[in-house]
Design goal:
- The protein is α+β, with helices and mostly antiparallel strands.
- It is built from eight helices and eight strands, in the order E-E-E-E-E-E-E-E-H-H-H-H-H-H-H-H.
- The strands form two sheets. It has a four-stranded antiparallel beta sheet.
- Strand 4 and strand 5 form a beta hairpin.
- Helix 1 runs antiparallel to helix 2 and helix 6 runs antiparallel to helix 7.
- The longest helix is centred in the C-terminal third of the chain and has 18 residues.
- It is rod-shaped and about 100 Å long.
Length: 227
């Protein structure tokens, strides 16, 4: 525990209280019900409930039947990044229960590490920038051209580059300026033109590039201006 932190168990009773302070106050209910009003916002703090009071916020409190809370008074500025409700509520409550038992048992590590652990469980998780998977289009084109005699689907292309079909379609449109089927058609035509230029018969080229007939290949080449 730093000089800026004080972790303790605090009992509240029927005598009302009202004040503000220059530090953050973190409360986790352990038993009973504490009626809490922070800057006019009412809240019932029962077992497992949490509250975060910012510096300067006036708060009124009373517990008609008595209540107990784990309370952290802290000047740690990182609490400014925290939302009123903890990011991982169940973790905070489980941690508070453990720290309460440790404080009652006089275990010094609770006061030493408890404040930092509460902050870690309370604050929003840092966003990790996701790196987009790159596509080796040349390798994919080579893989495709070796299999043009087979029926090929968008799902197969996406699986080859470890993307979902929708992700692959978006990336194909973004990078290649074409839909996956148009890109695949371009691969068939490019391979067909190469084989025709090498002198192979139209029927054999059609078979190798996945066209159902020589006439279908001839028509496709004509449409693409490759005839």
């Amino acid at each position: 525990m730093s000089l800026h932190d004080r972790l303790c168990l605090r009992d509240y009773g029927p005598s009302p209280g009202s004040h503000s302070h220059a530090h953050f106050q973190v409360l986790v209910g352990l038993g009973g019900v504490l009626e809490l009003e922070v800057e006019g916002r009412g809240q019932r703090l029962g077992a497992g409930d949490t509250a975060l009071v910012a510096p300067g916020e006036r708060h009124d409190f009373i517990s008609a039947a008595g209540s107990r809370c784990l309370v952290l008074d802290t000047r740690q500025d990182l609490w400014r990044r925290c939302t009123p409700a903890p990011a991982r509520h169940d973790d905070v409550v489980a941690l508070a229960t453990y720290l309460a038992r440790s404080l009652q048992a006089g275990q010094p590590l609770a006061t030493l590490y408890g404040p930092a652990l509460l902050l870690e469980a309370w604050k929003p998780a840092a966003r990790v920038a996701r790196t987009r998977r790159t596509i080796d289009w040349a390798e994919l084109a080579e893989w495709v051209q070796a299999r043009l005699h087979q029926p090929l689907t968008v799902a197969q292309l996406a699986e080859r580059v470890f993307l979902s079909p929708s992700q692959f379609a978006a990336r194909c449109q973004e990078v290649q300026g074409a839909s996956p089927l148009d890109w695949l058609r371009a691969q068939r035509l490019a391979r067909a033109r190469t084989l025709r230029d090498a002198g192979l018969p139209v029927a054999e080229v059609a078979c190798r590039t996945g066209y159902r007939s020589p006439s279908a290949l001839t028509a496709a080449l004509r449409r693409a201006g490759l005839r």
